Amino acid sequence: MGNHEGISVYNEIGQLKSVLLHCPGEEIENIVPDYLRRLLFDEIAYLKQACKEHDQFAGILRQEGTEVLYLTELMAEILESQEVRDGFLEDFMDEGPVGTEGIREALREFFSTMSPLEMVRKCIAGVRTEELAAIKPKSLGDMVRNPYPFYLDPIPNLYFQRDPFASIGEGVTLNVMHSKTRNRETLFAKYLFDHHPRFQNIPRWYNRDKSHPIEGGDLLVLSEKIVAVGISERTDAVAIEKMAKSIFNSNEPFDTVLAFDIPKTRAYMHLDTVFTMVDHDKFTIYPGIVSPLDVYSISKGTELKITYEASELSSILKKYLNLPAVDLIPCGNGDVIAASREQWSDGSNTLAISPGKVICYDRNHVTNAALRKHGVEVLEFESYELSRGRGGPRCMSMPLKREKL
Ligand SMILES: NC(=[NH2+])NCCC[C@H](N)C(=O)O
């Protein structure tokens, strides 16, 4: 396997060699107040500024030597094949869903003149009813008046590339998303791992055809042996056990999954909104989830051995990561109001570039100061608009390659 081919992620902090991003596009300008909640946004972002901020993010990554890949470009490469392109469009319309043949025919025509990159971008942006010329009605569904403004919904959460799939070891979980509005995101990941030459024969620890949800924001690769996962608003216990069995049945070195039972609320939607790893023995933590925090260990064996870990989080981390001590750096630096404010704008959602060096939103200045006080180097970028989608630097990035420690 070439240097940049495949997946290799055995930790959260090793030098980040290659990462997958999606820069927000026209999908953001297809968000309207009536559908904010369903589209999982708390406000409508200003696209031009959001793109500027995302470019700052990508710029920092490149400066640090990380290869930055964009989902749209990788998808465009595989859609150069007419067969793959046709198959993708049919699957995409199935899952839209686009139920009537008249509209499907019109959409095929609409996309047929686009370049692969234009088609990918437009699939993500969504297709408004006003964009399609007169539909040649083929069914009742084509004829009845429908006030809904889209034939294909926008997919505005795609810039949170952390969630649709997750790199673990040399494989990935191809996820089932908690919400219908995000599930089509995993179709892009499916096509990527089915067809892109960089990602051939990648083991799948979970597949999108399953029924129980699991999202990448809940998955942290704490070491070559330990995967942490949130039992959260977005990820359920059944999916966690299925994933654990898949990984344990492979040749991967992982032997334990630590499941954190976190509050099932939007603010703490994924484990990485309240807990991330920033150095060999340092973590950010949102104090609001610490006590009580139920943690279960799932250990490899002929049968899964599931144990309730009746200790404090720091003791559990010391035990499983073989550390003499751990430093849990509080979001908000002990200030309850600052913690709540900055957790809401993803103060805990750091992305490690290398051990002890992380990228954060500049707006979370209290938490960033705390990180620095604890010896962590913090690289910052602006977020007036990106954070309106309720995600931070870790949410917006899926590592493909990290150096082993
Ligand atoms: N890994 C994360 N914390 N992702 C944040 C995703 C935010 C997105 N608006 C959602 O509700 O799904």
UniProtKB/TrEMBL annotation:
Query: Which InterPro entries does the record match to this protein?
Result: Arg_deiminase (IPR003876)
Q: Name one GO molecular function term.
A: arginine deiminase activity
Q: Does the keyword Hydrolase apply?
A: yes
Could you tell me which pathway this protein works in? Amino-acid degradation; L-arginine degradation via ADI pathway; carbamoyl phosphate from L-arginine: step 1/2
EC assignment: the record states 3.5.3.6
Q: Which GO terms describe its cellular component?
A: cytoplasm
What positions does UniProt annotate as the active site of this protein? Answer: C395
Location within or outside the cell: Cytoplasm
Q: Which GO terms describe its biological process?
A: L-arginine deiminase pathway
Q: Which reaction does it catalyse?
A: L-arginine + H2O = L-citrulline + NH4(+)
Give one Pfam family. Answer: ADI
Q: Which UniProt keywords apply?
A: Arginine metabolism, Cytoplasm, Hydrolase
Q: Record's SUPFAM superfamilies?
A: Pentein
Family, per the entry? Belongs to the arginine deiminase family.
What's the protein name?
Arginine deiminase
* Organism for this UniProt entry: Clostridium aceticum
Annotated gene: arcA
